[in-house]
Amino acid sequence: MHKLGKVLVAALAVAVFGGTAYGYTTLESLDGITREDVIEAPDPGEQPADGSLDILLVGRDARTDNQDRPLPPEILRELRAGANGDDLTDTLIVLRIPNGQQAVKAFSIPRDSWVAQPGTKDKSKINEIFGRTKFASASEQRAAGKTDKAEINKQAITAARKATLKAVEELSGVKIDHFAEVNLLSFYEISKAVGGVEVCLKNATKDRDSGADFPAGRQTIAGADALAFVRQRKNLPRSDLDRVRRQQVFLAGLAKQVLSGGTLANPARVSDLIEAVKRSVVLDGSWNLLDFVRQMRGVSGGGIAFETIPVVNPDYRYDPRHPTWTAVQVDPAQVRAFAASLIGAQPTTPQAPAGPKVDVVNASGKDGLAARVSELLAEKGYGKGDTKAEAGRRTSVVRYSDAAGPAAEIAKLLGGLDVQKADSVAAGQVEVVLGQVYKGPGVSAGGGATGALGQQPITAEGTDCID
Which of 70, 163, 215, 391 could bond to 133 as cystine, CB 3.0-4.6 Å? Predict the structure, then answer.
């Protein structure tokens, strides 16, 4: 049985961005949207100094609607979805909405990322946390004597959503302010409501499992074809990581189309869009849509960029007893540094440096890299030293004179760099040299390789042609 990933988060993006352009009166039509108390009250999140919001967008591989009712068989057949979604969250994207006219930033977390399960010492793939928590919660409720199946299921799903959110927070270091979940029905109906989205492929491709069968070049896709496009993993150079990139390309295309005004100029499409959202989207109970619309008014379609968290090993063999089982290995320290540099997170109050002063040398040839890494280390409590450029060097290294511990911590934070003792480094200080093959935190803010894929960010300014 295939565990098929779905980029259903795209549906929510259309609803969110569409609500912004359509105006305040349209929000009254969204009063019937399903709400869930996923964010712990009374604090919906620690607001950053710039007033931005961090939103977790979840695409749940479920064969039900937002009321947990089974989808009609004819819809499942058209989507080639199979009978069981295994309660996986196969799409996880953190979206930062700025307060003003800055760029919107988003980063994807691969569904197979190997992470700690919240509240335990165990690890699992991040997309399995939802199902594991749901099962455990239901078992605990039955053991406590509860017999109402509907109530047991409702509480179990709430616990599963909270656990997924917590896992993302612990991995990324980002405090989530709001939660949104979409499913198969969301993607199917909303992608059709907007009249399809343009995508571009460098080569023709086919995949029997997902139903993908696309020619090379630019084309507009919707409904079942759109779902096949974003869930394809076979016959792609980087398998799941390329599927993440397709998710980003499609989501950027949706944002571009809606924000350009074409979709919202058609009353029939707007009506279909709103009804699809009400049937299939789940939002956290603390989300004030009117305030959100005010915040989104300054955002343009071209100001949205999508990236992917850094990956240590995309083919990680996590269980020696089962050598064919693989996951995506990630380093939480590296992911947190990446997220901080990407979304521009800053301490809410000035803090005195807790670590040694760090000089950063840019030998990579990437403009501005030393300054970005220096800022990132300062956010982590290290003192700011000198930044400079020097002749090209292939590899990176962290040098120290008399204290190996801080150097090792910095090396891990920057993606697992080599550590060397060097008499040239002043006592009590650390020197970071960034080489030409450096792809760790800080690279994404410049013009070089970024995140897990070593590729440029996906934006909504144009239609990117992909593999």
Answer: 163
